TrEMBL record:
The lineage of its organism: Bacteria, Pseudomonadati, Pseudomonadota, Alphaproteobacteria, Rhodobacterales. It is a multi-pass membrane protein. InterPro entries: DctM, TRAP_DctM. The keyword rRNA processing does not apply. The chain crosses the membrane at residues 6-39, 60-85, 105-129, 141-165, 171-197, 227-246, 252-274, 286-308, 320-340, 377-395, 407-432. This is TRAP transporter large permease protein. It is found in: Cell inner membrane. The complex comprises the extracytoplasmic solute receptor protein and the two transmembrane proteins. It comes from Maritimibacter dapengensis. Keywords: Cell inner membrane, Cell membrane, Membrane, Transmembrane, Transmembrane helix, Transport.
Length: 439
């Protein structure tokens, strides 16, 4: 079979199964069965699919994924994250657009502690949104920052998706984790700047002062008690990586240990909390690992059928520059992000784009960062942005999905601007991993 027919069959089958609503893990399983039978030798190929699946999970670099997920679930179910958000709210007392700014600061902080976009948005929406609407904020200004800042968890370590991307694309996980810090902080600052402009120029807000009185120390004490000690978890994870005393897997284990110690110190761990945390971690980890099994085998079938090399030969004939390859990756990812989830985007596109990037000498950290930023944008891109649905699930019933979508559009524009900035001037993000990981 010619490579283009093989490519059309495999990719077309993936698209068809997704369109009819089959879960992603089963999509890859079904396509792999068909591909293995056609291209790997019939029934013998089916046995090879099983062996490939086992081998794909015997990858030590995948170990941080369930541990980073465990950190976020511990933060969420123990109540430590909620206490940190309340502490930030008390500290930020009197600024225009106070509560939306609180959501950005607290969301960025929680992203650095949990690495979970969905948990980030759900936590902010359930704890702050009712209070913001009651205080007189327009829904478009109250909702937008919470949805947008949730995606920052993809960029800031600990990020399970960054670990997954680094593992699959053979990119330095430590460098990829560090590279996301600067774009994430730029994005958070721009979110705050936009909120300030809207608060000063429009009628979307009313004057909002923190209800808790007292002097500065009384307001700062919850922050010192409930936030600063948790920041040591971030320091433990990132610091152990940068100091070279731990691999990404070992730093993830250090992060879990630090989170457990924090939970014990705050007396927030119980058998019920631990049980729920472990169950949710197992569910999410199993879903991701199941997709990994299917997608890695899918990549091997693409290679064995000649589809990947045939497509690569056609694209390389155009003699694209590294920037043109990055732009091609960007366009495809942004289009896919309107319709499918982040893990599927990686699994479908990496078998094609990674060899192409290597063939023209694209910096893989740059490529990885463009991937992560595109995945973040996909989280809030209508019509199927995952965080839009998460917010709808925790928002009051009178808040429509259309209202949530419109509220996120200005922040989507800010994210796109940061992505363009990184594409045009990658050194904005790449200087930090080069500086800190030079040895």
């Amino acid at each position: 079979m010619e490579w283009y027919w093989a490519l059309s069959l495999l990719v077309g089958l993936v698209v068809f199964l997704m369109v009819i609503g089959l879960p992603v893990a089963f999509v890859f399983l079904g396509v792999n069965v068909v591909g293995a039978y056609l291209f790997l030798g019939g029934t013998m190929g089916l046995g090879q699919v099983v062996r490939n699946g086992v081998q794909s999970l015997q990858n030590y670099s995948l170990a941080p994924i369930p541990m980073f997920i465990l950190m976020g679930e511990l933060m969420l179910h123990s109540g430590m994250a909620g206490a940190a958000i309340h502490a930030v709210e008390r500290l930020i007392r009197k600024v225009p657009g106070r509560m939306p700014i609180v959501s950005v600061v607290a969301g960025t902080l929680f992203a650095a502690l949990s690495g979970s976009s969905m948990a980030n948005t759900a936590m902010l929406g359930s704890s702050l949104l009712p209070q913001m609407l009651k205080s007189g904020y327009a829904p478009r200004l109250a909702i937008g920052p919470m949805v947008a800042v949730g995606g920052i968890a993809i960029l800031i370590p600990p990020s399970a998706l960054a670990v997954l991307l680094g593992s699959l694309a053979k990119i330095s996980i430590a460098a990829l984790l560090v590279a996301g810090i600067v774009p994430a902080l730029i994005m958070a600052v721009l979110f705050v700047g936009y909120i300030l402009i809207r608060a000063l120029a429009g009628d979307d807000v009313k004057e909002d002062v923190a209800p808790d009185g007292g002097g500065f120390f009384q307001r700062a004490w919850p922050f010192l008690r409930d936030v600063l000690p948790l920041f040591l978890i971030f320091v433990a994870v990132v610091g152990s990586l940068l100091a070279g005393i731990a691999t990404p897997t070992e730093s993830a284990a250090i992060g879990v240990a630090a989170t457990v110690i924090a939970g014990l110190a705050y007396r927030r761990l119980s058998i019920g909390v631990i049980g729920k945390t472990m169950m949710e971690t197992a569910k999410i980890s199993a879903m991701i690992l199941f997709i990994i099994v299917g997608s890695i085998t899918f990549s091997q079938i693409l290679a064995f059928s000649g589809a990947a090399s045939g497509l690569l030969s056609v694209i390389t004939a155009f003699e694209l520059t590294p920037l043109e390859v990055i732009l091609l990756v960007l366009v495809v990812l942004l289009l896919l992000g309107c319709f499918i989830d982040q893990v599927s985007m990686m699994m479908i596109t990496l078998p094609f784009f990674l060899p192409l990037a290597n063939s023209v000498g694209v910096d893989l950290i740059w490529l990885g960062l463009v991937y992560l930023l595109s995945l973040e944008i996909a989280l809030i891109t209508p019509p199927f942005g995952l965080l839009l649905f998460v917010m709808k699930g925790v928002a009051p019933k009178e808040i429509s999905f259309g209202t949530i979508t419109m509220a996120t559009l200005p922040f989507l524009g800010i994210q796109m601007a940061v992505l363009v900035l990184i594409v045009i001037w990658p050194e904005i993000a790449l200087w930090l991993p080069k500086l800190l990981l030079a040895n």
